[in-house]
Amino acid sequence: MPDNKKPSIRYIIIDRCIRNTARDYGLSELLAAVNEELIDRGVEPIKSRTTIYTDINDLEFQFNAPIEKVQKGNRTYFKYSDPNYSYGNQPLNQEEIEHLRDAANILSKFSGVPGFDWIHDITSKLEIGTFKESGDPNVISFDSSEFLKGKNFIGPIFHAIVKKKVLKISYQKFKSSKEKTHQVHPYHLKEYDSRWYILGYLPHIDDLITLGVDRINKVEVVKNDSFIDNERFDFVDYFEDLIGIWKEKDVKPINVKLKFSKKMSDYILTKPIHGSQKERSLDDGSLLVELEVIPNYELENLILSFHSHVEVLEPESFRNRIIELITDAKSKYE
């Protein structure tokens, strides 16, 4: 089991506990919370409350944490006098920047390996992030939803996937007034259109379930349930013929033929809609595109997002579906 000499993990856990206004944390509670997560991460737990007390002093004096002691009876608890403070918002020091650059170099070795296409984006962000900490913070920004509901669950879910932990997930669909609980063996996290999704195995249906993270109300690790390893689902293949996330069972890919206007053609050429895309330029500057994809809600939304700059040519069933959606939208303005 790895040792616990690196205090940064403990700082993160302690910071999270102190920011939690729903309960009180003294040294004993912080020690228990830290050790629970350290053990869960496969890290040697700490044995003394003195270590926690030293970490609190480090947060206060090295990272300017506005920690105050609150006396309740014979117990002393820790709170932040500034509720907006977070250890995670502190700027990186030079040593941490160098560590991130080293991490980027290591991760870059995986570029091009099937299933690791995301590595290129991560390493780019790491390189840019390290420059951002030491340079102008206004150089670049990323398209992300800062206020996405449920984003606080992404870390615990990722950790459960890596550590092979069964999760109890409280989930509430957008149009449902009732919450439902799923006991999920988590296999995969997927981001699409600035939203995150978890794909996991449900033994009682012997199949995958897809849950939007923004509809999750609670995530808990199930400690007395054995994790079922993923030996059936290849997520590279799973998403290969898909735009977006949602996939109806037993629905096969179709050949979709589209015609894009001259104004839109360069955008489609420089940012293909899908990996299966084949294109042919016409004399009038328009562009014919063929895709081999599974028809779903996200594909429909994508086609509609191009407005009058695209026409669905084939298949007739999908063309009629788009006509139906456009007609319905048009009726709302009549």
Task: Explain what this protein looks like in three dimensions.
The protein is an alpha+beta fold. It folds into four domains: 82 residues, Winged helix-like DNA-binding domain superfamily/Winged helix DNA-binding domain (Arc Repressor Mutant, subunit A), CATH 1.10.10.10; 41 residues; 81 residues, SH3 type barrels (Roll), CATH 2.30.30.520; 78 residues, Alpha-Beta Plaits (2-Layer Sandwich). 36% of the residues lie in helices and 22% in strands. The protein has ten helices and eleven strands. The strands form three sheets. A five-stranded antiparallel β-sheet has the order 6-5-4-3-7. Strands 9-10-8-11 form a four-stranded antiparallel β-sheet. The protein has a two-stranded antiparallel ribbon with strand order 1-2. A hairpin with a 4-residue loop joins strand 5 and strand 6. Helix 1 crosses helix 2, helix 1 crosses helix 3 and helix 4 runs antiparallel to helix 5. The chain is elongated and about 80 Å long. The chain starts with 7 loop residues before the first helix and ends with a helix.
